[in-house]
Amino acid sequence: MKKKIQILGMGCPKCNKLYAAAEAAAKELGIEYEMEKIADINKITDMGVMMTPALAINDDVKFAAKIPSMEELKKIISEAK
Amino acid sequence: MNWKDEWKWLAGFVAVFFALYFLPVGLPRFDGAITEGLELVKWYVREHVVLCLVPALFIAGGIAAFVSQASVMKYFGAKANKFLSYGVASVSGTILAVCSCTVLPLFAGIYKRGAGLGPAIAFLYSGPAINVLAIVLTARILGFALGAARAVGAVVFSLVIGLAMHFLFRHEEAAKAAAQADLPEPEVKRPLWQTSLYFASMAAVLVFANWAQAEPSDAVFYAIYKVKWPLTAFFAVALGVMLKLWFGASGLRLILAAIPAVLLALFMPDLPILSFSAGFIGLSWVLNSSGEGELNDWFSSSWDLSKQIFPLLIGGVLVSGFLLGRPGHEGVIPSEWVAWAVGGNSFWSNFFASIVAAFMYFATLTEIPILQGLIGSGMGKGPALTLLLAGPALSLPSMLVLKTVMGVKKTVAYVALVVIMSTLTGMFFGAFF
What ipTM goes with this model? Predict the structure, then answer.
């Protein structure tokens, strides 16, 4: 199944960094994926995230307020359903 | 040609063409203003970058890397004790709001999913005003009184405004069913006292390196001034020992990194800035060569902040010098205009400063050179504090985002509270200092 990788953040430098890192991780895993940026503050809050940047996969928030290492990112993305 | 998009380029070219065509080169005021801009940037770079901004950036980066932000977040949950929520909200900007783009999502989260409107507003207000970099630079460039008034004012204000907002909208708050947000679990890596000591040493390096020259009549300050470099060195060594013991830095690398700084201190004692710079370069090398982990996070946080803040600050200083000139000199804008609008300490001056500051957008920290220019051109101390209190907390863009989060009515109430309170506090401060 195609994984929808969502980056939550209002466009700060860290959010862009996480976006790039997550995309690179997904590419290296060689899975089918699509990237989505969620910048609407109300949507971010409704997903239960207070601290950006955060990453969600198929609308399920995986972590917030950090940029994990490449290895960790790959693990999170490959384990997500 | 797709003129729907291309017209912007054309409009831009035309605007630049006419601006250059009529460039008033040779006009004394214009040429003078260019010189002022360059002089001001030169002064900034000489006086404030190495000794003040660089250590402050390392401290701010350290806060981002070592202070568990999640441990603060638990005070903002829906079930948290309300007194604690307000208290923590009013001071947590120091830890949480290192980057201003994190303030708004946090605000929305606390408001909708956490402790509610009052604490959310308290956090929103104090966040941008009391981050470490802002306070350090304000005190250093605009004077200790304004720096302290800014820090204290921001904390007190945030409590009063938060409580006032809660009171105004208390019926809505009671009706709102609180939904709990998922708060990240805090990760504890070392006891609090170790982290505190580490930050205290960093702060000591910053404070003593910047200790101002004092008159011999001022016994205590003069005595400290005499030994400011040994004191700075002492705390730098203490920092090195802590990095080795608690943060797992390599002892050999720390010693290697310290050698150039020590040699420069011994052989070039007249230029402590060289030794100081060598010390920070050494520290950067240790942090970078320590592999992936906390120390590396520390450096990359500081580095990201530097990339974000330096261009803005240098650009802000140039523009501010061009428009307003150094203290005692004039830029493009005549001093009489400034003195007319915000000179003295009248209600009108303070109110004007408050309104303008509330709507204007100040990029991170640029409020400081701008204010310096304004004070040099005749702005009163009262309106200066007013601007510091109303400015960074509010801007037209942030008001628009606030409107989508909490609606027009609450946004208007918040803006009105900030404007009125800043005006009154500015007048009060201006009357005494």
Answer: 0.73
